[in-house]
Amino acid sequence: MGDAKLDLLQGTLDLMVLQTLASLGPLHGYGIARRIEQVSGNEVLLNQGTIYASLVRLQQRGWIAAEWGTSDNNRKAKFYEITKRGRKRLLQDAAYWQRVSNLMNRVLAMPEGEPEL
Amino acid sequence: MIDALRQSRERVFSFFHRAESDRELDAEMAAHLELAIAENLQNGMSAKEARRHALLHFGGLEQSKEHYRDHRGYPFMETLLQDARFGLRMLAKNPGFTLVAVLTLALGIGANTGIFSVMQQVLLQRLPVPHPEQLMLLYSPGPTSGHLSSDEVDGSESFSYPMYTALRDQLTAPNGSQPSPAGSGAVFAGIAAKADFSVSVDSRGQTELARAELVSGNYFDVLGVQPAIGRTLEPSDTATLGGNPVVMLGYGYWQKHFGGDAGILNQSLLINNQPMTVVGVVISGFDGVQLGLVPEVYIPITMKHVITPSWDGLADHHDYWIKLIGRLKPGIPLSTATAAIAPTYHALIAEEAPSNTRMSAQEQSQFLAKQIVLKSGARGRPILENDTRQQLLMLMAMVGLVLLIACANVAALQTARGAARQKEMGLRLALGAGRGRLVRQLLIESFLLSLFGALLGLVIAGWVSSALVHFASANGVAEGLSSSLGGTVLFFAAGVAMLSSVIFGVAPAWRATHVEPVSTLKEQSGGLSSGLSHAAMRKGLVIFQVALTLVLVTVAGGFVRSLYNLQHADLGFQPANILKFSIAPDLNGYTKERSLDFFRRLEERVSALSGVRSVSGVEEPLMEDDDWGSNVTVEGEPPETAGTHHPLRNGVGPGHFSNLGISLLQGREFTIQDGPTSSKVAIINETMAKIFFPNGSAVGRHMAFSHDPGNLDIEIVGVVRDSHHSNVRDVPKEFVYIPYRQETSAGRSVGHLTYYVRTSQDPASLANAVRQTVADLDVALPIYDERTFVEQIDREISNERLTAALAAVFGALAALLAAIGIYGLLAYTVTQRTREIGVRMALGAAPQVVGRMILGDVAQLVGIGILIGLPLAYSLGRVVDSLLYGVKIFEVAGVAIALLTLGIVAMVAGCVPARRATRIAPMIALRYE
User: Fold this and answer.
1) A67-102, pLDDT tens digit by residue?
2) Do A56 and B72 touch (CB under 8 A)?
3) In terms of pTM, does the model score above 0.80?
4) With contacts defined as CB-CB under 8 Å, which chain B residues touch A77?
5) Rounded to an integer, what distance in angstroms lies between the CA atom of residue B162 and that of residue B240?
């Protein structure tokens, strides 16, 4: 089972959290974790607990803010929200990620066995 | 960057709110699980399964929390606190070790900090004024013509008042003004002048001597010093020569004499019999511009005729007595300023040159080439610094070495403890502790020791510092030094503590953690092998200590022998049983005639006191670092040298030479008959007689002073043995004595004399009778500098006394610490070798052989230490030899004494463990584990 799932690259979790909060608005930790799992089609190997280290890191950098609130089913939970600085950061990081991703795609698209360049 | 700052701010916050943040995290995770469970239930799982699934999916709860904490605060700091707590427990478990180590470190750190607190004031501290870096002292090296009063080596810091006013007017431009078109040298925002003198202050019927600072009106403005109350002196106060009888009080003087009463403002003080109005008090903390010399009253410089009644000199281009301190305009570099003022100064010098009398053509051209040299005035006038810099640096170096020796002792203790804790270390390594973590743990323990040492050391530093400050003030070395330990000093103590914890901590910590877990855990304690490399390390430490101790003891010995030489130098007179005091009727308004009459009556009365054998007065006091000289022309001298010899001179009273015990070699003494109107006479010393009359007798020949050339109308009536005049280190110089009652030179009112009263009993016991005698003649006349002549000589060499005493203390401290080190090592090795010694004795070794074996070890270590220490002592000795009198650090006698001291120390320290070794009972030792 574990073999089929993706181990997350260092730093990618932060980006996923930012994107999730940017598109869905305020969410609690569980919600964020679930959302990432759903979007990934359950392809991400995520110990949900690791999300909290990412959250505290983002919070310290001022990219997200947190506040205690009540969940849909009336439970007390800490809700996270992306800040203005966080959105700016997300734009930068996403652009960077796109470039890396495009580059990797092009590199990996090289046909095999033919020496080039 | 901002993110990083922000993150670290958050982290610091979290660090201090760990518990709160932990609770919040627990709540948050609990909420997470609840949400997960709820969702799982909705998806149709059983309650049990829903919970299991949620937990599984979450990952390790504790791991997550740990992971979270790593990102939250400072995990390094948190474990550091853990280590510190553990370290404290370990130190508390071992109180004996802790006590010895902390005391040793406290001594070392305390002594260092105490010396440093004084050193930094003398060598580092800047004046407490705004922008001290803009202040510049003005010097003008080169020949002068006329009268020069100076307290630096070459007199280059003294200017005449006309030169000062010219410089002030031509080199100063108000801040922000445009430089004049001629590109003038107006680089200063202001130039202030000062000179210090003693004055007599009569307040509420009591006359006392006070230290007066004569200052230019812009002095406080240039320095940027505010009044505590009232106003400062102002340029208008010195606008006219002889003008403005006003005075400002120093803060300390105001507190001491007027209890800080603001009512003193606008009242009148009688200063040198002249009423002066108190216009203000200088702000607390400002003690003038020369460290060690605290002005008590500040008086406009144009009042000089009142301060020095017989010597005005304000209008005289050839009277060099004023010290200048200027403030450069902001942003002007030193080199620019020096270049900019050169043309102005040259013009002034050229204008003055024609009036230089008696200057050879060569001197005249040197005079015309004189420049103004600027030196930083940020720390004020460096007189005290110049006098004490070398001694302070040497003492600082010595006390630093003492600390190193102390650190070696603590390192040895640490090593011993490391050996004892090998099992603990082995176990912790076996359980997976990183070596780095263990080293850190041990270093933290070292740091804690240093910290406690430093805290206790600050107490010791306070004592050292107040003792030094008290000594300096009581012996006239320096007043106004602070004994409180300020920020710089605390910073220094912290730095020293850190550094020493690294010095004594790193090696033992590294050693202690380099153990093989398996072998350590298996090994029996007390076995032969476990301690060997520890012992090697401790031997190295003892060798190091012996080497440094040899250096310190040798240097200390040099200073003590030098002091002995100073105290037993043949001064050419007999100072025992003499009481001395000074008196200055001219400061109380006496004319010269009245003063002479007063002195005659005083001499009659004092010599009639019971217990007094004889009394004599002199113009220039002896052994107070004062001297005075004049050019002379002597009968028979070739015309080309006439007037070029410059002997020292003094005016003395009748019977002076027999009173002080200076032998008369030819002719006669001055008597009461040598009065103001009788024919002029002089007595010269043997050095002068040899120069001028190498073949014949000096008596009956004639001479004249250059300020009063004319005929050679002074008859030489006697020749006396050479004697020291200004200090113990004097070398014999030509000297002319005249009766003080025949004094005619300008600037000499003979209005103040210093008296030497030879007694047949303890001289101090006559002090009251002498004071009463003076009071009987004039109750308003203060006497000052009253002490025995022997005390005066002691004061004169107080720098040397203090240096020798401190050097001796440091040497003794080093020897004591080395002894402890040697003792500790031997006690340890004897314990380690108990079984071996037992075997030897069981096989028939005599106790003496065993004892010799142990002492032989000591001798070997000490020998190696000496071989290393000797070249060190030699090279250090060469550096400080110049501070010594009549000895060298590294000479046979000194080294022999040092080696002997070290040998005795080593043997005493080695004796107890060696005796214990000889008493080992073989059977017990063999069973000993």
Assistant:
1) 888 877 777 888 999 999 999 989 988 888 888 888
2) yes
3) no
4) 28, 31-32, 35
5) 13
